[in-house]
Design goal:
The structure is a single chain. This protein is of the alpha/beta class. 37% of the residues lie in helices and 15% in strands. The strands form two sheets. The chain has an eight-stranded parallel sheet. Strands 1-2 form a two-stranded antiparallel ribbon. The radius of gyration is 18 Å and the shape is globular. The chain binds NADP nicotinamide-adenine-dinucleotide phosphate. NADP nicotinamide-adenine-dinucleotide phosphate (NAP) binds next to helix 9. NADP nicotinamide-adenine-dinucleotide phosphate binds next to helix 9.
Amino acid sequence: MSLLTETFTLNNGIKIPKVGFGTWQIPDGDTAYNAVSNALKLGYRHIDTAYVYRNEKSVGKAINESGIAREDIYLTSKLPAEVKNAGQVADYFNETLSNLDTDYLDLYLIHAPWPLNQVGTRFDQENLAVWKELEKLYKTGKIKSIGISNFDAHDVKNLLDNAEIVPAVNQIMYYAGFTQPENTKFAQDNGILVEAYSPLATDDLLNNPTMTSLAKQYTVSVPQLALRFVIQNGVLPLPKATSKTHIEANTELDFTISDADMTTLNAMQDTAPTHYHNATEK
Ligand SMILES: NC(=O)c1ccc[n+]([C@@H]2O[C@H](COP(=O)([O-])OP(=O)(O)OC[C@H]3O[C@@H](n4cnc5c(N)ncnc54)[C@H](OP(=O)(O)O)[C@@H]3O)[C@@H](O)[C@H]2O)c1
């Protein structure tokens, strides 16, 4: 069985394919349509998009025209980070369903605990109220699992202490040398699957010398090493690619990094030190 169809099991019993295809910065139209179509042809069964990526229409079209049954594709989208008014949640959700031309989502995430121009500001009451709207949608069956993104331990605890449903997923920036140990551990200790966004540091880690030399030893590429590293840590990578060559290369992950090399990778300094980080990523 390919890693693309192997699954992690979420805290509500639902299975999620171990590798997702990321679509941030893939322009709507032919580029997004072709990228998602190619990903599905090459075996990906898990697609990650968001309202703010503005490509949901092309992502949905590629899924609907793929010839693959909807229930065989795991589809995630996200409520914009700016939506902190519970009264707006259902409208955004319905627009996302309409954009994607689907009846349900497999996973719906709060994109961030703060609007993107107020990174790090606490919105505890607002996040709780928005989360309760996601809980209602979950109970209708229109979303199979609900989760969060960019939440630090404080923001997760706010939901754990006050909400009914434990988030299934926290999607955070995570790559070799930048694994957010505190936020990752807090999520995992509470049964929340961590998804790794920017697992290639949006391509900033590709020339890292340690990654390059280790990849050579395994006769794989740096992206393949970086993605396999994430999976062996029990975290779900979401590689994005527009190039068909990259999309295909990122499916070839059936090798094993030794325990010793995992220890080395887990002890590494940031492999993409120029990559932007905010203070909540810890
Ligand atoms: N929740 C959030 O706030 C959040 C934030 C960021 C990202 N995400 C999610 O995580 C996904 C991935 O993160 P990301 O978009 O930052 O990027 P990424 O997956 O870390 O890196 C993508 C970059 O790496 C290149 N690349 C991919 N595979 C390659 C290969 N085999 N060889 C050489 N280059 C390769 C891509 O090139 P080409 O495109 O030219 O092929 C692209 O430039 C996003 O698309 C999105 O779904 C979520």
